[in-house]
Structure formats: C-alpha cells, structure tokens
C-alpha cells in the first residue's frame, strides 16, 4: 500500500515549510534514510528524510510554501495505483484546515458577542440614568429628535437611485445629493456615478512630476524565518508588558583579566563569553529571572540555558548553550563559535535552538552604545549588551579614563518586578567588575 508523505513539523514554532528543492524525482527509488528534499523552516533549511522504502510515485508540491501536515508526496511500489488514496488524504487535510478556520471564526464571534453584551449593559445603565432627568426636558428632546428624523426621511425620499448606483456611491464615499440623475424622473443610475467620478478625477489630476531616474521599488518575498520572527516577537511585545533596566559596568578589570587569560591559553576568550558566564551565574542566584510565564502558573526553570542571538541574512537565530552556569569560559567560547557558525550556514538542528530560559543580544561589536531588546519567548528577560567605551570617570575625587559598558535588561512584568531585575543586574555587574569570581 502506498505511503502518503506529509509536511512534518520540524520545529516547535513551525506552521508551514518552504520546499526549496527536491533531491529525489518521480520514479526514483527511495530507501529509509534517503533525503527527499530540502525544506526551509522558520529557523533553518533542513533535510526531509524518508522513513519508507519504494519508488517516489508522486510529488505534490514542486516548490514553495506548504502548511504543516499537508500532502507533499507519495511513496509506493512501481506502477501502484495511488490516486484514490491520495484524494482521500488531500480531502482529509482540507477538512482539517476548514475545521481550524471555523474554530477561529467561532472564537471571533464569541468575542464579539461578549463585547456587544458589555456595550449593551453600558447603554442600559446610561438610559436608566437619563430617565431620571425632568419630564419637560425629555419631551422637548424627543420632539426635536422627531423633527430631525422627519426632515431626514423627507430628504431621503427626494433622492432616487438604483441599487447599483447606491452601492457605487457608498464604495467611493460619495453623497447622492451631489449627483444629478439622468434616469426616469431624475433617478441616479450607474452612468451618473461613473461620469461624476471621471469629472472628479479630471479636477484633481495634477501634472506628473519630473522623473530623475529609473529606480524601481523592490519587493522581496518574506522567508519562513522572517514570518516567524514577525509573529513571535509581535506576540511577545504586545502580550508581555515590557519594562527596561539599564546599568553601567566598569569593564577595566574584565579587560585586564581577559588579556591575562588569553596569554595563558590558546582559546581566545571574548567579552561576550564573560557576559554569558556572568549572566548564567547570576540566574542561579535569581531564579525568577530564569522563569517562564505559562498563563495560570509560572515555571521556575531548573536548568539554565542561555540563548545567544546570532544575526543571519534572513533575520535572527538563537542557538542555546545548555547548562551554561556549569560550563567554563573556554567551553562557552567553543560552543558559541560552533553554533554561531552553524546558524550562519543554516545547519543548526531544532534541538540546538530549543530550551532557552534566558537570552543575550550583543551589538557591542557594531559600536552600539545601548539599546532595548524584545523578550524571546518563553523567557521572562533578555539582556541587551552595548559596546565598551573609553570615558572620563571620577575616582577618589579625580578624573581618570575608564572603560565602561552599558547593559539593558528587558523584563516581563508579569514575572519579574523592578527590584528583582535590579538585583539580577547588580550581580551581573559585580561579577564582571571582579571577573575572578567567575573562575574560582
């Protein structure tokens, strides 16, 4: 019996995959473990592996976006009749999509009913309040209202228009009283609306501007990664109440310690490695910053898994360093380099991008003084790191040259309060200003 191949869910946030290229063609023999196609997900380009043996009988989608669980291919014995099975599978996928759409509509309708009920209650209360006013004022208002209503109805009756003309006027935001009808007894018809629009356009048409070049706008297709970034960070920004805490850190001791460490080992420790290690150690001391919002409860994550934001061509990927607080600076350095390289080549596995409990975004290498970052779900905080600057500082009553770095913590106020976030930053600051505490 033929096997129906559907688009698998290759990451926890994937809703559709973009088929880039089929590595097997119709008629090719397939064995378990063979790579059928390359699929671009919201996080990386991944290989679609076959779990079946046989012949690739049918390719449903040559290239382009395909929803998760949609039919994309059929594998079976050579010459096997699969048409009826394929039809049933496609109908099943369509019914599931329609069911999902109906669920969304029902939710929307229910929400609208609740809003309408609330509005009606408000109106009812207002009417009850208004009814307490004096009878004379009420009668006067009613009389005035009735006069206006009669006048409006009278005006409405004098304007005759065909249903199509009314619809066209409504679509173009036109007042029928401004248009002269050419139909029977002055009735406004379609040609009257068209003539009025043409005259209006002629009056408002301005001379064309002089063209100074042949430049044209470019429209770029939105990748699966960019779609997911837009959706997830949009949800984060507008559902999680963000607030921000900025701290200035004296990096002189960190600079000296880093130089000494790099003299003693072949591994070249970066400032980002120091920030990752300091953050991980501070998270162990402040577990609420290492927590996740689950709606009706807060999960205090047992493990500390720091995500490090990496810029790629289509957007941003966040490889995760598992159990970060238990790793040495050299281990952190090696893992960040390896996973950042994989991210840029789109070779990160799904597992390497999942399980983050805290995220760090460092733009210091781009000479950015400070910035605020949007929280990366399901984290409760993200740390934005700026560049190290040479600035004048006052020490013991004297002005000297200092090395300072600004960091900004974005916090989800549903989980982390101001004092909690401030104490976390104090610990990070203390560790970076005395980096030997991260080693002993």
Describe this structure in words.
With 440 residues, the protein is α+β, with helices and mostly antiparallel strands. Helices cover 39% and strands 23% of the residues. The chain is built from 9 helices and 18 strands. It has helices at 83-130, 135-158, 163-171, 190-204, 224-239, 252-264, 271-285, 329-344, 418-433; strands at 3-6, 16-22, 29-30, 35-40, 45-49, 54-59, 64-67, 71-76, 242-250, 291-293, 298-300, 306-308, 310-312, 315-317, 320-321, 358-362, 381-395, 398-412. The strands form 5 sheets. Strands 9-18-17-16-12-15 form a 6-stranded mixed sheet. Strands 1-8-6-3 form a 4-stranded antiparallel sheet, covered by helices on one side. Strand 4 (35-40) and strand 5 form a beta hairpin. Helix 3 runs parallel beside helix 4 (190-204) and helix 7 crosses helix 9 (418-433). The longest helix has 48 residues, at 83-130. The two termini are 63 Å apart. 26% of the residues are buried.
Q: Report the C-alpha radius of gyration, rounded.
A: 33 Å
Poorly predicted sequence stretches spanning 5 or more consecutive residues? 131-157
Helix/strand/pairing category: alpha+beta
Number of helical stretches of at least 4 residues: 9
DSSP, total strands: 18
Encode the helix/strand succession as letters.
Answer: EEEEEEEEHHHHHEHHEEEEEEHEEEH
Report mean pLDDT, rounded to a whole number: 82
Helix content: 25-40%
Q: Tell me the strand order in the biggest sheet.
A: 9-18-17-16-12-15
Indicate the multimeric state: single chain
Shape: extended
Which band does the percent of strand residues land in? 15-25%
């Amino acid at each position: 019996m033929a096997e129906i191949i559907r688009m698998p869910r290759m990451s926890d946030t994937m809703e559709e995959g973009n088929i880039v290229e089929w590595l097997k063609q119709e008629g090719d023999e397939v064995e378990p473990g063979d790579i059928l196609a390359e699929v671009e997900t919201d996080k990386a380009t991944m290989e679609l592996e076959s779990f079946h043996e046989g012949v690739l009988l049918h390719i449903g989608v040559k290239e382009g976006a395909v929803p998760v669980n949609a039919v994309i291919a059929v594998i079976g014995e050579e010459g096997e009749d699969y048409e009826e099975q394929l039809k049933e599978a496609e109908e099943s996928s369509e019914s599931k999509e329609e069911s999902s759409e109906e669920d969304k509509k029902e939710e929307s309708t229910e929400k609208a009913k609740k809003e309408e009920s609330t509005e009606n209650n408000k109106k009812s209360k207002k009417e009850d309040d208004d009814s307490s006013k004096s009878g004379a004022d009420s009668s006067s208002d009613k009389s005035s209202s009735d006069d206006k209503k009669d006048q409006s109805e009278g005006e409405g009756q004098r304007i005759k228009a065909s249903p199509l003309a009314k619809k066209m006027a409504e679509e173009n935001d036109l007042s029928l009283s401004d248009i002269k009808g050419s139909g029977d007894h002055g009735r406004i018809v379609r040609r009257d609306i068209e003539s009025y629009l043409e005259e209006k356009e002629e009056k408002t048409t301005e001379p064309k501007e002089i063209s100074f070049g042949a430049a044209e706008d470019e429209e770029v297709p939105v990748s699966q990664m960019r779609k997911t970034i837009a959706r997830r960070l949009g949800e984060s920004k507008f559902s999680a109440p963000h607030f921000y805490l900025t701290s200035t850190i004296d990096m002189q001791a960190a600079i000296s310690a880093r130089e000494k460490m790099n003299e003693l080992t072949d591994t070249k420790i970066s400032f980002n490695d120091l920030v990752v290690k300091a953050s991980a150690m501070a998270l162990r001391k402040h577990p609420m910053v290492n927590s996740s919002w689950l709606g009706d409860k807060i999960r205090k994550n047992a493990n500390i898994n720091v995500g490090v934001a990496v810029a790629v061509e289509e957007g941003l990927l966040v490889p995760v360093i598992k159990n970060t607080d238990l790793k040495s600076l050299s281990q952190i350095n090696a893992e960040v380099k390896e996973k950042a390289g994989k991210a840029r080549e789109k070779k990160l596995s799904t597992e390497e991008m999942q399980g983050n409990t805290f995220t760090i975004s460092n733009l210091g290498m781009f000479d950015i003084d400070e910035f605020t970052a949007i929280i990366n779900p399901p984290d409760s905080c993200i740390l934005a790191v700026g560049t190290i600057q040479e600035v004048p500082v006052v020490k013991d009553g004297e002005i000297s040259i200092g090395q300072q770095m600004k960091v900004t913590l974005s916090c989800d106020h549903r989980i982390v309060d101001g004092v909690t976030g401030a104490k976390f930053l104090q610990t990070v600051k203390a560790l970076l200003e005395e980096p030997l505490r991260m080693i002993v």
